[in-house]
Amino acid sequence: MTATTASRVLVLNSGSSSVKYQLLDMATGTRLAVGLVERIGEETSALSHHPLVTGGAKREWEGEIADHDAALKAVAEELDSDGLGLDSPELAAIGHRVVHGGLRFTEPTLIDDAVLKEIERLVPVAPLHNPANITGIRTAQRLRPDLPQVAVFDTAFHSSMPEHAARYAIDVRTADEHRIRRYGFHGTSHAYVSRKTAELLGRDPSEVNVIVLHLGNGASASAVAGGRCVDTSMGLTPLEGLVMGTRSGDIDPAVVFHLGRVAGMDMQEVDELLNKRSGLVGLCGDNDMREIRRRIDEGDETARLAFEIYIHRLKKYIGGYYAVLGRVDAVVFTAGVGENAAPVREAAIAGLEEFGLAVDKDLNAVRGDGARLISPEYARVKVAVVPTDEELEIAEQTYALVTAD
Ligand SMILES: Nc1ncnc2c1ncn2[C@@H]1O[C@H](COP(=O)(O)OP(=O)(O)O)[C@@H](O)[C@H]1O
Ligand SMILES: CC(=O)OP(=O)(O)O
Ligand SMILES: [Mg+2]
C-alpha cells in the first residue's frame, strides 16, 4: 500500500436511522470532531456536531434530513465550516462500520466494487443496517473518490466462534447452501470493551474471561475467553438474543408460522413486527430506557413488566455464558443503556451472589465517563462499566490497514 503522510481518519457509523461520526488524528491520537445525526427520515431530524480542536462550541439543530445521503452531506458541511472538510489533504482514509460481513469478511477490508457488491448481497441478513452502510460508502466515495475507504465489520470479531456455538441445529445441507449460521454483531464493541476490561483488571487479555453486555438500541451479549469470542447472542441477523429497543430477540420460530397461518400476516409484516414493533417499544410503547424508568417511578405497571422481561432475558444470558466460559473474571456493561442505566445493572446482577457476582450500590450510582468497577471489593467476579468506542476501534483498524507496508 502507498505510504501516506496524511494521518486523519473520518469514521462513519451509519445505523438504521442515525449516523455517528468522528474525525481523528491518528498520529497525535487527537479527536478533532465528533457528532451524531438522529431520526433520519422522520419528521424532524437532529444533528449535533462538536468540533474539539478549533475551540468551537457544540452546534445542534433540528430540521428535515430525508435520508442517509442527505445526512452525510450535512455532516460534510459541518466539518467544512470548521476547516475540517473532507477535501483536506490531511485525510488519510474514511473508515465505515459495516454491520454484516457474512463469511467472507473477517478483517478490515479496502472497499472496491467487488467488496461493495458483496456488502449489497448481504442486505437481506442485515436489512436495517447494511443499506445505511452502503449509502455512507457511496456518498463518501463521491465526495472523495481518491481516498481509501475501509470497511470494518461488526461480524469480524465473532468469526473465531467455535462451530458448536456458530451452527444452528438444522439440516446441515440447507444451512450450508444458504450460509445460515450465527454471525454475531457489535463485534468492534465486544472486541474493544473486552480488551479495555482486561486493562481495567490490570491483566493481559489472553488471561481473562469476560461476559460483555452491549446494551444500546440494538443489544447483544458475548462470551469472550482469553480475548477470543466463544459465543454471542445475535445470530444470522441482529434480531436474535436479548430484548432490544424495537427488536424481540429470542422467540420460538414457530411464532412466525403461527402469525402467517393463523393471523394471516405475510413475511414482510412479520419481519416488520419483530424488528420494529417488538422489544421494549412493543411491550410498553417506549424504547428509551430513560422514559421507561420515569414511567416505572410513576407507578406504571406496563413499563415495569417491560423492564422485568428485559432483565429476565439478560440474566439468562449471563447465566448461560457463565456456564459456557466455566470461569468468569468480569461481567461488563456497555453502550447507551449499559453505560447509563444504573437500575438495569443493579437488577441484572441481583440474586447472582452464588455466582460470585454483586453490585455496590454507591459505586453503581456514580456517573462517570471512564471504565470503572461497580462491584464491591469482596466480589469474586468483578462487575464493570466500560464505555464503548466503536468509532475509535474502527479508526485504528482503518489507519493500520492504509499505513501497512
Ligand atoms: N441516561 C440514560 N439512562 C438510561 N438509558 C439511556 C441513557 N442514555 C441513553 N440511554 C439508552 O441508550 C439507548 C441508545 O444507546 P446507543 O448505544 O447509543 O444505541 P445505538 O448505537 O443502537 O443507537 C437509548 O435508546 C436509551 O435507551
Ligand atoms: C447490529 C446492531 O444491532 O446495531 P445497532 O445497535 O447499531 O442497531
Ligand atoms: Mg450502536
TrEMBL record:
Cofactor note as given? Mg(2+). Can also accept Mn(2+).
**UniProt: substrate binding residues:** 97
> According to the lineage, what is the superkingdom?
Bacteria
Q: Could you say which enzyme class this protein belongs to?
A: transferase
**Main location per the UniProt record:** cytoplasm
| Keywords assigned by UniProt, alphabetized | ATP-binding, Cytoplasm, Kinase, Magnesium, Metal-binding, Nucleotide-binding, Transferase
**Which stretches are transmembrane?**
none
Q: Which residues bind ATP?
A: 20, 214-218, 288-290, 336-340
Binding site residues for Mg(2+): 13, 390
- The reaction(s) this protein catalyses: acetate + ATP = acetyl phosphate + ADP
What family name appears in the similarity comment? Belongs to the acetokinase family.
Q: What does this protein do?
A: Catalyzes the formation of acetyl phosphate from acetate and ATP. Can also catalyze the reverse reaction.
Record's protein name: Acetate kinase
UniProt source species:
Streptomyces albiaxialis
